[in-house]
Fold each of these.
Amino acid sequence: MKGFFSNPLIVKEMRERFRSKKSFWILGIYLFVMGAILLGFMYVEQLDKSLVPGENREWFILIAGLQYGMICFIAPALSAGTISGERERQTLHVLLTTQLSPLSIIWSKLVTSLAFISVLVLSSLPLYSFVFLYGGMSPQQLATLVLFFGVNILFFGSLGLFCSTCIKRTGVSTITSYGIAFFFVVGTGLLLLFIGNLLREIMPSQYPFEEVWQLPVLKVLAMLNPVVVMGELFGETIGPMTDFPMPPWAAFSIVYVALSIGLILVSGYLLRPNRKQRWGWKKA
C-alpha cells in the first residue's frame, strides 16, 4: 500500500482529476438526477396505489439499471484514451523512461481512470436507503450488486485500456472498446436467444422448451451475459440459469476478473518498448 500511494503517476493524475471543479459538478449533478428519478418514480407510484412495504422491488431495479447503464457508457470511455492519449501528446516515450515498469504504468492508468466512476457508484449507495425503508430488497442483495458493479467496472476499464494500448488513435480505440463491450452486454444475450430458439425450431422433439435451456453452451452464454446475471440478482429466474452448479454472480465474477487480469497483463506486455527484440523478432 505504501508503494501504491507513493506512485507518482497515480498521485499526479488523482490530483488532476479530483481537484478540478468539474469533477464535483459532475458528482453533484449525477446524484441530483438519480435522486430526482427515484423520487419521481415513487411519487407517480404513490398516485396509482398506496406504498405497500415489501412490494417495491421496482425501485431497486430502477436504480440498479440506471447505474449499470452509466457504467457501460462511461467506464470504457474513461480508459480508452489513457495510453493512446499519451501517444498523441508524444509523452509516452518520456513516461517509459521513468523507473515505472510498463505493467506499473498500465495499472496506474487503470486505477486513476476508474477511480471517479467508482466514487459515483459508492456515493449513490445512500439512495438505496429509500428501498430499505419500504422493503423489497435485502442487504445481501445490495452487497452482491456492489460486487457485480465492481467486476463490471474492472472489466470495462481493462478492456478500454487494452484497446488504448493496441490502437494508436483515441477515437478508434474508444469505438472499438464500445463495440466489444456491446458484444458482451447485448451480443451474448442475442446469441443465447438465437441458439436456443434455433434448436427448438429445428429439433423440437429432441430439444423441448424446458430442456433446451439446460444445454451447457447456453448456460455458459447466460453466465457471460451481465444482463441475465443481474436479472438473477433481482430474483428474476431465467431458463438457462436454472439448475446452475454455483451462484450465477459468482461464476460471472470469476470469469470476468480472470479476463480483466489477462487484459491487464497483455497490455503491460504490449507496452514494453523492447518486446520484439526480447523474443527475437525483427522490427518491421
Amino acid sequence: MTNYTELIKPNGRPDRSSYGVMVLAQVVIAAIIWFLSQSPLLPTPVEILRAMGRLVQNDNLIQELWTSMALSLQAMLIATVISLLIAYATVIPFFRPLAFLITKFRFLTLVGLSFVFTLMTHSGHSLKVSLLVFGITVFFVTNMVGVVQSVTRNELNHARTLRMSEWQVVWEVVILGKFDQVFDVIRQNFAIAWALLTLVEGISRAEGGVGTMLLNQNKHFHIDAVFAIQIVILLVGIALDYGIGFLKKLFCPYATLTH
C-alpha cells in the first residue's frame, strides 16, 4: 500500500509510485499557474513555443547553438588538461604555491580581464576560448586540489607496503584511485562554463552563438524569445550534464558500487 506520509517526513523514504505522483502533481500545479499567469514579464508556453519556432526558422537558432556548444567543449577540454596538470603537480611541494595562487583568481571578473586577453589573443574566437578557459580553470583547480588532498595517509601507506615507488603511489592512488571524482568535477565546472557562455559571447560577438542571440533579443525586449533561448540553453546543459554522468558510469563503473 502506498504511504504518502513518507513524502513529508524528515529523511522520509517514499516508494516510487508515491514519489512519481508527487512529482506529477507538482508539475501540473506549476503548469496551471504558468498558464493562468497574466504577468507581462512571464510569457505563456504557447508564446514561447512560437518564439522558438521563429528563432529556428529565421535566426538560425540550431546553428548558433552548435557554435556555442563547440566553443564550450573546446574550452572545457583545454581547461581540464591544464587544471589536472596543475592539481596533480601539487603532490610536489614546489608547485603548491602556484596552485594556491590560481585558486584565488576565481574572485576576479572576466569583464575586468577582457582587455588583457584581447591584447594576448589574435581573433574573436581565441579571445572567447581564453576567457572561458580562465573562468573554468580557476574553479576546476580549486576542486581538483581538494580531491588530491582528500587522499588519506593510510591509502598512501597501503600502496607503499606493496613496494611501490612514490611515482607509482601517485599514479595508482592519487590519479587512478580518484579518477571517478574527476568526472564529478568536470560536471560541476561544465555548468560554470555553460553559465559563463553568455558573458563571454557578449564580450566578443564574433562568430555569434546563443549568448549573442540572447543579448540581442534581450536588448529589443523580446521576452518570449529570451525565455525560449533560456529554455534551450537549460535543456542542452542538462543533456550534456547527463552525458558526462554517462561517461563516468562507462569508464568508472566501480564508482556506483555500494560498500
Amino acid sequence: MVEHSHQEGQLVYAAAGALAITTERGTWVAPANRLTWTPPGFKHAHRFYGETDVRILAVPAELCGELVAYPSVFAVSALVREVLLALTDRTETRPGAYDRLRAVMIDELVEAPQPSLHLPEPHDDRLRAVTDRLHADPSYKGTLAELGRAVGASERTLSRLFHAELGMSFHRWRTILRVHHGLIHLTNGRSVTETAGACGWSNPTSFIEGFTEVVGQTPGRYQADLRNDRP
C-alpha cells in the first residue's frame, strides 16, 4: 500500500471484490455494499482483495463540505450504486450531466456514515503492542489479562485504554478485526467454515452471528453477492 493524499475528496467503490482503506484514524474494510470516503488532505492507502472492479470518483473541494470531514464508509443503496456506475462507465453527452448525477449521489450520502466496519488504532504504546499482536494473529484466543502480562500492563488498565482511545471494548475491537479478516478470506474464495477457524471463532455459527451483526448480512449472502457482482 502506498500512502498518499489528494486536493479533492475521493469516493472509492468496489463494484466487485473488497477494499480496505487505512488512515491515521484506523482502517475501514468496504465490501461491495460499502463506499469509502476520504476528504481532501487526508493521507491514506488502499488495498484491494479478490476479483475487483474498483470505481474511483473525485469530489471537487468546494463540494466536500456536504459530506463528513473525516474518512469514513457509507452504505451503498441501489440508487447510489447505479449513479456511481453511470459516472464511471459513461462518457458525458450533455453539458452538466455529470454534475447533476454527482449532486444526487452526494444528497444520498449526506446521511450518517456507517461506523461498524471502522477499526480504530491506538496511540498508547502498551495498547498498540496488544493490537499489533492481534493484527499479526487474529485467531489468537488469549484473554486481555494474558495480553496484558505480555506487554506489562494490567487488564484493568488495558480495558480502560480500549474505551478511552478506541471508543469500544476489547471484545468489540477484536470482533471487528476478525470480521475484517473474514471479509478478506471470503472475498478470496475460502469457505465459511475455513474462514471461521482462520479468524479465531470457536465454530461457524459464532462467526456467522458476529459477521452478520457487523456487516449486515450473513457470510453466505456476502459470497453470493460477490458471485453475482463479479465483472
Amino acid sequence: MTDTQPVSDTPAAPPGVAHPKTVRSFVRRAGRTTRGQARALAELGPRFVLPYAAQPLDPAAVFGRRAPLILEIGFGMGEATAQIARSRPEEDFLGCEVHEPGVGALLKRIEELALTNVRIVQHDAVEVLQHMIAPDQLDGVHIFFPDPWHKKRHHKRRLIQPPFVALLTSRLKPGGYVHCATDWQPYAEQMLEVLSAEPRLANASSDPALGGYAPRPDYRPPTKFEQRGLRLGHGVWDLIFRRRDG
C-alpha cells in the first residue's frame, strides 16, 4: 500500500481479451535504499523474496502450508501489508512491488513482527498474474491507493482498466474478492465503472446510500497520508467486488 505506488499503463490482456500492446503495471520511481533496508534485503531477501519465474507458483511449497492466498499489488513501504498479515495469520499474503526501498522496508517489518505468512515478488504484477498465478487460485486481491494519473491524457496509464480487471478476475476463485481503495474521486468513479462492467464480478456493497462504494473494512489500516487527508476533509473510497460462482 502506498500513496506513490507503482502504476499502470493499460495492461496486457489475458487470453481472449484483445489489446494492442504489451505494457507494464508500474513505472520506476527514484528512491534511496537506507542501510537498514539494504541489510534486510541481503539477510531476509533470500527467504522472503521469491524470484520471478514464468511458471505457476506452488503456494503450499512456498509457505509450507495450505491456506487462503491474498495478492497485494503495489504495497509501497509495506506497513499496511504487515499489519494486515499480522491480523490475519490464517491467510498467506503475496506482495508485488518493484520499488527496492519498499521491499526492504517490508522485510524489516516482517522481521520485527516475526511474520511467516508474507512473501514478496519484486516484479511487474501483470506478468506475475499472467505467469505465476494460476486461474482460480487467489482468494483475494488488494490494490490500495494506486497512482490516479490526474491529467486526462494520462488516464490510460491507470491500473484499473477492463483488460487488467478481466485478467485479475480469471485468477480469483469463485467467491474471491478484489478490494481497491483510492483518495481521488474521479479515479474512484472509474474503478466503480470498470469493476461493475466485469460480468464475473459482483459488488459486495449492499448499502444503496454508499453509491456502490464500501465502508473501509477493519482489516485495512488507514495510512498517515489518508488520515491527514481525512482531517482536511478529503474523501477516501473503498470498493469491494467478489467473483461470481460459476
